[in-house]
Amino acid sequence: MFFRALSYLTLSLVSFAATAEHLDVHHLMSLVPEPNIKPTYRADGKTYRSGGIGIMVYDGGNATDALGPYQVFSSAGLKPLLISASKNAAGKYKNSITFNSGLKISADRTIADTKNLEVLVVPGGAFETIQMANNTEVLNWIKAIDKNSIYTTSVCTGSWILGAAGLLQGKNATSNWYRADELLTHFGAIPQSNSRYVFDGKLVTANGVTAGYDMALAIVQKVFPNDLNDGKDFTQAVMLDLQYDPAPPVTGGSPEKSEPTVFDAMQQMYDFYDLANTVKQIPIQ
């Protein structure tokens, strides 16, 4: 009886010790990011002052590139902001944005009234992304934000915009699968196109569309190292909040996992629009 009780006590202590080394509800609800990448506000607690996570949005961009990271950061309590880089017919930056899917959103701010961010996310798209990559005013804004950011990031073909701003030169980077090595090399990057996301210092690039979820989760893990488990527990909590556990009905989603004929058909479709050659005409500023 004594040994049974002793064994039970030992198991209980081991269980408690194991639990103590992981996130509990009190710790979960009191964690703050390190460094703090939430935006700051004026004394009224409502008016935005500076900093935070900014996701650049523009007409014709890909909705999931922008809103995937937005949802991850929101679930982590980091209060991301949507920053418009598009202008209206009068040449003024506007808040209303229409993605390439037709989805309309209202941005929180514009690049005209955003001077600094801790994290910048640049989403991709297709032809409108190429237009952004040729927009000197937008590129200068990105370079100015990058000077003081903690992380400057892209999702999918958003890497073309960072590349045009000169931020990929000599950096390990990934991008959308379409002729990724060829186009990353055009911008002076060291291609890591098989990687879902790549950190090179403060530059973080993700490959196509849904990889933005993974990249954002990786940043969450980086800024919540104080959860007793190097950010893994808090990241799991965010993933559980999203029930992020992908199980697609068929194998695919990358060149390596797709049938060669499917890959060839998709690449030929993009080639039909001469996307690669158009991207190669983008100058690096």
Fill in the keyword field for this structure.
Rossmann fold; 15% strand; 285 residues; 13 strands; seven-stranded mixed β-sheet; two-stranded antiparallel ribbon; alpha/beta; globular
Secondary structure blueprint with pairings:
Elements (H helix, E strand, L loop, with lengths): L1 H19 L4 H6 L9 E2 L6 E3 L2 E5 L5 H13 L5 E4 L11 E3 L5 E3 L2 E2 L8 E4 L4 H7 L2 H13 L2 E5 L2 H7 L7 E2 L6 H7 L3 E2 L5 E4 L2 E4 L4 H13 L8 H11 L17 H13 L2 H6 L5
Helix pairs in contact: 3-8, 4-6, 8-9
Per DSSP, what share of the residues sits in E-state strands of 2 or more residues?
15-25%
**Within the largest sheet, what's the order of strands?**
7-4-3-8-9-13-12
- For the record, the CATH architecture stands as 3-Layer(aba) Sandwich
Give the end-to-end Cα distance, rounded to a whole number of Å: 78 Å
CA radius of gyration is 21 Å
Largest sheet properties: 7 strands, mixed
The CATH topology is Rossmann fold
- Give unreliable regions as ranges: 1-18
Which structural category fits the helices and strands? alpha/beta
The count of domains is 1
Q: Percent helix among the residues?
A: 40-55%
Helix/strand order: HHEEEHEEEEEHHEHEHEEEHHHH
CATH superfamily: Class I glutamine amidotransferase (GATase) domain
Which term fits the overall shape? Answer: globular
Average pLDDT = 92
CATH class call: Alpha Beta
Number of helices: 11
Please provide the count of β strands.
Answer: 13
